[in-house]
Amino acid sequence: MEMAHRYTAEEVDWLKENAAGTSFRELTTQFNETFGTELKYTAVKTACKNRGIKNGLWKVYTDEHIEWIRDNIALVPLNDFLTLFNKHFGLDLRYSQLHALIYSNGFGNGRNTELVKGERRSPATEFKKGHVTWNKGKKGISYPGCIPTQFKKGHTPKNHRPVGSERICVDGYTWVKVKEPRTWREKHHIIWEEANGPIPKGHCVIFADGDRTNIVLENLLLITRRHLSIMNHRKLISNNAELTKTGAAIADVIMKINDRLTPKQRRQRYNAAAREKAKEYEKGEK
């Protein structure tokens, strides 16, 4: 890792005397030649910025700058144009500075869509109003030689699965294909809804014994998502169906108690729980 240069009082005085009217790149070259250093221009620029030393170049643009931009802006994209501009004039403008200069003078390179003096300027490659595409009204266009290998109307792919097919996803849930071409639903939702109707909004169906392959109506439990949050947080879901149902009842009691608390009481309970967690953590660290 390169060590940061410690500037002496002599070097700082030299920067103050020579910075005005000189680009930081040129200033860096002169500095290295004078003091026998090998600093990068960014290091010198940062040193000047930290000490309030300015070269005054970025504030003043001459007619020569404006004319050069007007004559050359269409040559390259703005990012590359910044490099050309700095190299040509020996400056080190940032992109935002050059863009502000271009915007304020109403220039555009025909490549960037931007607002110039309040009006939208479109790139040369953008479709104009009234443009008619070459393939308007045409259908089924194919390149020569492609037709023999194209899918024909009514083609059935090899991996097609008929309605009623089942698959097990990576999360362990079983899904059933219910409609063509690619409509699938979770099997335990279908079974519960066949017996009880649509799942109410804000509710979910869980497996009482935690086994996602045991898809029978007796093992399915409808709870609200708020219940599920409490049960997950307090570890009330078990691989024993009866314990999980008891956990759902406990979650219902907790939810009703919370509903009766005032906002202040809720904050106090939350803070007390947080303190207990902190104590447990400290014990574990020791």
List the domain count as a whole number: 3
How many β-strand runs?
A: 7
| CATH level 1 class label of the largest domain | Alpha Beta
Shape: flat
Strand content: 5-15%
The order of strands across the largest sheet is 3-4-5
CATH topology of the largest domain: Homing Intron 3 (I-Ppo) Encoded Endonuclease, Chain A
Characterize the main sheet. 3 strands, antiparallel
Q: Averaged pLDDT, please? A: 82
Instruction: Please provide the ordered H/E string of secondary-structure elements.
Output: HHHHHHEEEEEHEEHHH
Parts with pLDDT < 50 across at least 5 consecutive residues: 112-121
User: Structural class, judged by helices and strands?
Assistant: mainly alpha
Q: How many angstroms does the end-to-end distance come to? A: 37 Å
Rounded Rg: 36 Å
CATH architecture of the largest domain: Alpha-Beta Complex
Can you tag this structure with a few keywords?
Homing Intron 3 (I-Ppo) Encoded Endonuclease, Chain A; mainly alpha; 10% strand; 10 helices; single chain; 3-stranded antiparallel sheet; 286 residues; two-stranded antiparallel ribbon
